[in-house]
Specification:
Two copies of one chain form a homodimer. Helices cover about 30% and strands about 25% of the residues of chain A. By secondary structure, chain A is of the alpha+beta class. In chain A, the strands form three sheets. The first copy, chain A, has a seven-stranded mixed sheet. The first copy, chain A, has a four-stranded mixed sheet with strand order 3-6-4-5, covered by helices on one side. The first copy, chain A, has a two-stranded antiparallel ribbon with strand order 1-2. In chain A, helix 2 runs parallel beside helix 5 and helix 4 runs parallel beside helix 5. The first copy, chain A, is globular and about 70 Å long. At the A-B interface, helix 1, strand 2, strand 3, strand 4 and strand 5 of A face helix 1, strand 2, strand 3, strand 4 and strand 5 of B. Strand 2 of chain A pairs antiparallel with strand 3 of chain B.
Amino acid sequence: MPVQERKDLLTYKGAGVDISAGNEAVRRIKRLVAGTRRPEQIGDIGGFAGLMGLPAGVGDPVLVACTDGVGTKLLVAIALDRHDTVGVDLVAMNVNDLLVTGASTLFVLDYIACDRVVPERIEALVSGIVDGCKQARCALLGGETAELPGLYARDHYDLAAFAVGVVERSKMLGPTRVKSGDVVLGLRSSGLHSNGYSLARKALLDPAHAGLAFADRLPGDPAGRSVGEALLAPTRIYEPAFAALRGLEHAPLHGAAHITGGGLLENPARALADDLALELDLSPLELPPVIAAIAAQGVGVRELLRTFNCGVGMLLYVDPAHVDVVRAALAAVGEEPYALGRVVARAAADAPQVRLAGASWMGGAVEVE
Amino acid sequence: MPVQERKDLLTYKGAGVDISAGNEAVRRIKRLVAGTRRPEQIGDIGGFAGLMGLPAGVGDPVLVACTDGVGTKLLVAIALDRHDTVGVDLVAMNVNDLLVTGASTLFVLDYIACDRVVPERIEALVSGIVDGCKQARCALLGGETAELPGLYARDHYDLAAFAVGVVERSKMLGPTRVKSGDVVLGLRSSGLHSNGYSLARKALLDPAHAGLAFADRLPGDPAGRSVGEALLAPTRIYEPAFAALRGLEHAPLHGAAHITGGGLLENPARALADDLALELDLSPLELPPVIAAIAAQGVGVRELLRTFNCGVGMLLYVDPAHVDVVRAALAAVGEEPYALGRVVARAAADAPQVRLAGASWMGGAVEVE
């Protein structure tokens, strides 16, 4: 083989990496991202890193940081070739983790990895991330789009994000603040959010179970959505709800638990000290249609509670003296929280820390160690 | 199919997600991660998020944040079944971007996504990340291990990380500080670092080019390493070098450029104002053996300069009045920087901003628009 021909072959593009497609994707992204800029943000240093000052008025700031992805919900987006909503999920999964500490959001960074850069698809993904950042009132401060031929299958991609917020040290929520007697309110979820998709897809799509197609109507859905639409419904972002509570007199919000992977079995106690427990009555919960359709395929109640949010995306632990004020503040931002129970003293150091009861679909009480 | 049997089938594990393997991986990781703890760190709130105070003595803090992955260097680690070094690369790619702003590192978060959780492999990956965090003097504040069956091929995985640092606003490096006359020093790379692996693998492994196997000796390597060893050499982390310069009188470091994707063509000007340019003489550079072996397969000089670091992982733009002090401080941490040229006034607004000359392997001068 003549040297000239081999030189021609050995380019980065020839090896599967298309820099010009990458540049085109960056051009499309820039315009979108500008819409999330915050006043604390500082002009970039050649894009090596994102720069952000701290918001005014925080005397003793504590930084709060999370990372998460969207999981196999991406396989639904890829199968449906619909890429403009999973970015909302990505931001939500991170921001909802951050909010439970009492932090306000500051910024998000995203990581998109794919087998090849299709500028239109990257633009759609980032438009969802930007949508999420706007809902979460944070800047999209930076990101990476990685073209990794050989690591991802054709037209597959993965998303990860990272969120940073800040909280005044004296205002941190959680185990030091939650007390016996606190009332538990539950903020509604919009569906599966971003957990349990491997099981959800198996239950709904596998011919050995429901055997539905994405385009089929979801059984029992009053909105008449297709299975694909219901599965892709974006995760709710609870920043507006938390923002409504941050300014209230007497700081009535003591703690919160994001109902993420591990569901209602593993998350509620994460905001409690070891000597407290939860008595939750799930009877007010309406199982979202997509979760009800999955349950109908024969998922055991413990598996259901551990895998899915069962209709509640966030638990709030609220000072019983100020529940009415909290309810009014939440109503002002469109939230109609469920009343789900209360925080109690734990019976013993080895007693279960969560007791769930009440929902007809549960078939009885469930205790959680 | 009887209902009981279907219930038994429809579990999260049956759908490909093994929570107990995940828990075992978490147990192994915790011990490793504890070794990176920083004094500013605050005990977690149920692990929903990582919490970190700011270091003392920063009056007007600016947060600096980056995200990056390791690219297709992972395919080398996967092929060699050697997973304990790519974590160093992951931290390095983020931290080196962060350092050029003048920031000190604070924390890193990692995202590991795989087709199935093999606890030993996750432990190896995290041990590399922890090694990198120790080199970079930052905490591993959190992370996510995502099991995504169907999105990754068998035994494949991807890594992403996010790094956050902090810089006193008045001490930020970059375009506002770099001046005509500044001396350009280059810190040595350890090999490919984490860029250009798609081209590197094609040049070295493809039967149409060098056709080597990972176990073959790398041609021309004085250290006698195998191709696999040379390809996996971890990226250098320049935090010790920057730390040595941070405390110097007269703040002689004005700016820096991480030689990452885009190589010596696209990165050096990123730390310059538009009215400045660089005259770089690359003749002192020794091409690392792995890059020389790739070049020998017939990669054009522009492609080489744009894809690989060509032996220099970081450029420093230094006050000419204090170069000796800088050299002495770098020598104290084991750095022997190359003298590569200087910052000059740009001839015209449309004149090239970088002029590279001198290396015998370049075959002449290269101008960059």
